[in-house]
Amino acid sequence: MQDTIALIGFGEAGSTFARAGGWDAACVFDRKTGTPEAKAMQARYDEAGVTGAATLAEALARRPLVLSLVTADQALAAAEAAAPHLAAGALYCDGNSVAPQTKQAAARAVEAAGAHYVDLAILAPVDPARLAVPLLLSGGRASTAAEALAALGFQNLRIAGDAVGRASSIKMIRSVMVKGIEALTAECVLAAEAAGVRDEVLASLDASERPRPWEARADYNLDRMMIHGLRRAAEMEEVVKTLEALGTGAEMTRGTVRRQRAIGALGLGTPPEGLAPKLAAIEERTKPA
């Protein structure tokens, strides 16, 4: 099955899946092709054993299965750019973290070109789960896509329904809690550190919730934000769209966007080990000049 697949985007998700599945016949296009980062991207292709295409059209030619794994802000543009080059009847699986409305707009472009659009939601970090990561699919061809993805090695697939946007609704609304807790953690421990009461605050939280010490939880959440804050901020912009469309309000989620972006923009992509060093690194980058 691997010679049937084209990948759009080769970041963490695409490269992790390709390596885990041994997709050495997959063809890949990443928008970094033709940029100063092209050499590093080619090295990533070589490491995963995939073929890098010079153009999007080349990557998609005669490929009946397409997996789009780009950043949230590029998801719709990628679908619109891909649409004219998709093989007739191809399955376009959009695995990007965007609002249902964004996926519905992408679906219109793909379906108008004679291909089939599948809403794909990735419900956990791809590393270390890799091909066991939970995948949720919706759309008229969701079952067909699930069979094709299973043949590529994915092990944890579930159909959410026939409507494009249903899988992404689950992903987006779930992210209100998952990414919101990360942002609230940063706000809490940064304030506690500044007040000199970090140990006491964390101890009080430990007393009320036992499954995981808050020292470890805060460390983990800041780690995720330092590495992925910019990407998560883009995703949370889509969550805002989701909530606004529902009419339930998105005030806290807008705050999460700002906090994720602020932490991600600090340039701490290789975070130090431990909570105290992370807090010190953030303080160093944010203190007035």
Automatic annotation (TrEMBL):
Record keywords, A-Z: Oxidoreductase
GO MF entry, a single one: oxidoreductase activity
Ranges for domain 6-phosphogluconate dehydrogenase NADP-binding: 4-148
Active site residues of this protein: K171
Protein origin, superkingdom: Bacteria
Keyword Nucleotide-binding: no
InterPro entries assigned to the protein according to its UniProt record, in alphabetical order: 6-PGluconate_DH-like_C_sf, 6PGD_dom2, 6PGDH_NADP-bd, HIBADH-related, NAD(P)-bd_dom_sf, Pgluconate_DH_NAD-bd_C
Claim: Oxidoreductase is one of the keywords in the record: yes
Domain Phosphogluconate dehydrogenase NAD-binding putative C-terminal: 192-262
Protein name stated in the entry: NAD(P)-dependent oxidoreductase
Native organism: Sphingomonas pokkalii
